[in-house]
Every structure is written in C-alpha cells, then in structure tokens.
Amino acid sequence: MERSGQDRRSTVGIWVGHLPGPLALLNRFSITRYLMASIVSLAFDVALFMVLVAFASDPGWASAAGYSAGVVIHWLISSSFVFPGKTRQGAALQLQRIGFVATAILGLGITVSIVSGLTEVGVLPVVAKGVAVLVSFFAVYLTRKFGVFR
C-alpha cells in the first residue's frame, strides 16, 4: 500500500481502511479507533489486574498496576493509529506526552477511586473494575481528543 502525502493514517489505519464494507467504518471515526485501542490496552490492564488480585494483592493497587500497563500500550496505539498525523515533534512531542500522562493520571484516579470505593462496600473487584472502565473511558477519550491530540 502506497501512502500519499495527504494521507495521515498509519500503516495499520490504511490496512483497516481497506477492509470490506462495514469493517472499514472502524477506521472512519476516532472514537471507534479509540475503542479498538482501548480494548487492546484493557486486555493487558485486566489480565495484570486479575493476576495480582489472584495473588491476594489489594484491588486498588492491582487496578493501579494494570491501568499503568495499559497506558503504555495505549500511547503506542493512540499516537500511531487513533490520532494519526496529530503526534508532534521535538519539544511539542514531550508536551504531548506529558498531556497524555496527565490524562492517564486522571483515568487512574477515576479507576482506583471507583474500584476502591465499590470493593469497600462489597462489590466484586471485577464488577467494580467494569464500572471504572466505562467511566474512565469516556472521561479520558474526551480529554485526549479535545486536549492532547487536537
């Protein structure tokens, strides 16, 4: 696949864009690309969370560790696939990374607060994590779309 000077999509974005019919719509909107990136990073997040909880870690700390691992994965996907052509260079890239980390801290705070609070009142850790995922997904997506990758 050849990339034109006008095409800001990543190689993965171009590949997804060439999928047949409805599947190509996955690449059309940043929210769907963000959802796909979130699913991949969430898989890493939840896997680490569940392993740590299985080894009797505190659910709050386990959610922090899982979320942190997911953030690293999400940066790699977001900067190349979700918001193609929006990644800065030089000093601006460092500021963008700081903004990304700041939104990750926002999401981490939301996640840990919800998981800790809900498990304190007897909600199963995996259910608490699910609630936290939904709330933090939308909060972080909006701040990244309109702040970090504008």
TrEMBL record:
The keyword DNA-binding does not apply. The keyword Nuclease does not apply. It comes from the Bacteria. Keywords: Membrane, Transmembrane, Transmembrane helix. Pfam families: GtrA_DPMS_TM (PF04138). InterPro entries: GtrA_DPMS_TM (IPR007267). Its main location: membrane. Residues 33-149 form the GtrA/DPMS transmembrane domain. It is found in: Membrane. It is a multi-pass membrane protein. The chain crosses the membrane at residues 34-55, 61-83, 95-115, 121-142. This is GtrA/DPMS transmembrane domain-containing protein.
